[in-house]
Design a protein that fits this description.
Elements: H1 5-11, H2 17-48, H3 54-75
């Protein structure tokens, strides 16, 4: 899913496509970083919690599934779109 600079230049007057792509790359990288932090926190919470409680287990699994969905969405975008 490569981003074409010339196409972006026409869609965003006054801003260069390369600038927009850099911002896009920073945003995606920031989302990846935050998702990794959340994943680690969720793992540690799971390890330290009482997972015998069915509600707690269900909630942890639900959060984990949603984070995996977000990860799948983000992974569709290249790490460096240049």
């Amino acid at each position: 899913m490569a981003v074409q600079v010339d196409k972006i230049d026409g869609e965003y007057p006054g801003r260069k496509g390369e600038e927009i792509i850099r911002e896009y790359d920073r945003m995606i990288e920031e989302l990846r970083t935050r998702l990794n932090v959340l994943s680690t926190s969720l793992f540690l919470l799971h390890e330290s919690s009482n997972t015998d409680d069915p509600k707690a287990k269900r909630y942890l699994n639900s959060v984990n599934q949603e984070m995996e969905r977000i990860r799948n969405i983000i992974s569709q975008y290249p790490k460096n779109s240049k």
